[in-house]
Design a protein that fits this description.
Blueprint (H helix, E strand, L loop, with lengths): L2 H19 L19 H4 L9 H14 L6 H4 L23 H4 L4 H10 L14 H13 L3
Helix pairs in contact: 3-7, 6-7
This protein binds heme C (HEC).
Length: 148
């Protein structure tokens, strides 16, 4: 194999790996089926008490991409919130697509809060019960920005 050909081949393989590792290879589903249970009424109807200021969102952003334990949300929900994170491929049901406006506008803050805290049994959605209330509301504020 000539050097140039070998170089092109390597370039192609690298590109494929990069594509595979990013969000853009799977089709986006919107709206999706939701398998979550509904939060109790008093929580379901709550509006984010922290509001949606840039400061609150910035704290949510940090948790979403880097610090939330056991696993940052982006691994499944994707770096752009479109449900195409690295771990989403083999997952059924799929993670929520936060960039799907028609679906997200009908899910109240309190419902998002409830599922983040308690998870969705039988799915990949883990309970984040080590986060305090403020941190969960920061996440709610941040995931809303994907469908703005
Ligand atoms: C291991 C993969 C995974 C991780 C990590 C993950 N989720 Fe999820 N998430 C899911 C799946 C799968 C669903 C869909 C569950 C369903 O439909 O029952 C979901 C659903 C949700 C929902 C949907 C609520 C609703 O009523 O529709 C919210 C909100 C959510 N996740 C927020 C988060 C946040 C915030 C984080 C990080 C703190 C996070 N998730 C981390 C897999 C994940």
């Amino acid at each position: 194999m000539s050097l140039i050909r070998r170089f092109c081949y390597l370039l192609l393989v690298t590109c494929l790996f990069v594509l595979w590792g990013t969000d853009i290879t799977l089709a986006e589903v919107c709206p999706q089926g939701r398998y979550v249970s509904q939060a109790p009424d008093n929580i379901y109807n709550q509006i984010n008490p922290l509001g949606n200021t840039p400061d609150v969102q910035a704290k949510g952003e940090k948790l979403y991409h880097w610090t939330a334990k056991p696993l940052p949300c982006a691994n499944c929900h994707g770096i752009s919130g479109n449900a195409k994170g690295m771990m989403a491929r083999s997952m059924t049901p799929k993670p929520r697509n936060f960039s799907c406006k028609v679906m997200m506008k009908d899910i109240p803050d309190g419902q998002l809060f409830w599922i983040i805290r308690n998870g969705s049994a039988g799915t990949g959605m883990l309970p984040y019960n080590k986060l305090n209330d403020d941190q969960i509301w920061q996440l709610v504020a941040y995931i809303r920005h994907f469908s703005k």
